[in-house]
């Protein structure tokens, strides 16, 4: 049941994003920024963490989950280290996910033939 819930929630977030892309003139980069900021905002208000616990990976994998992780990392670092935590909290909280994405993308490039779009 957890897999189904994660699939449905993640699919709903992605479908809403696709609708936003199709029905507005917003560029994909701006939509990505909106999703990260929305996740951080919902995390700041205290909505995203209970939602993510309920939805599992369906809420943690999309960019809204990344925004929530960034906010939580900054908040924890500020509580622990003060002002300097504003600058290092987001990096320390999201470093593993970003590193994994880069490493797996590099490994995938060994098996596929990546090339620049022309």
Describe this structure in words.
The protein has 118 residues and is mainly alpha-helical. The protein has one domain. The chain has six helices and no strands. The protein has helices spanning 2-23, 28-45, 48-55, 57-60, 63-81, 85-111. The chain is globular and about 45 Å long.
Secondary structure layout:
Layout: H1 2-23, H2 28-45, H3 48-55, H4 57-60, H5 63-81, H6 85-111
Helix pairs in contact: 2-5, 5-6
Question: Which labels suit this protein?
Answer:
mainly alpha, 83% helix, 0% strand
Instruction: Categorize the overall geometry.
Output: globular
Head-to-tail CA distance between termini:
44 Å
What structural category do the secondary elements indicate?
mainly alpha
Number of H- or I-type helical stretches? 6
Task: Determine the mean pLDDT.
Answer: 90
Number of domains: 1
Short description:
Keywords: Membrane, Transmembrane, Transmembrane helix. With 118 residues, the protein is an all-alpha fold.
């Amino acid at each position: 049941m957890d897999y189904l819930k994660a699939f449905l929630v993640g699919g709903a977030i992605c479908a809403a994003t696709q609708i936003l892309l199709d029905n507005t003139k917003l560029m994909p980069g701006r939509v990505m920024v909106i999703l990260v900021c929305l996740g951080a905002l919902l995390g700041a208000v205290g909505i995203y963490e209970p939602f993510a616990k309920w939805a599992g990976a369906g809420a943690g994998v999309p960019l809204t989950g990344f925004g929530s992780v960034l906010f939580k990392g900054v908040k924890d670092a500020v509580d622990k280290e003060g002002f300097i935590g504003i600058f290092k909290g987001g990096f320390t909280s999201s470093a593993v996910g970003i590193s994994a994405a880069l490493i797996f993308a590099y490994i995938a490039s060994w098996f596929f033939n990546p090339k620049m779009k022309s």
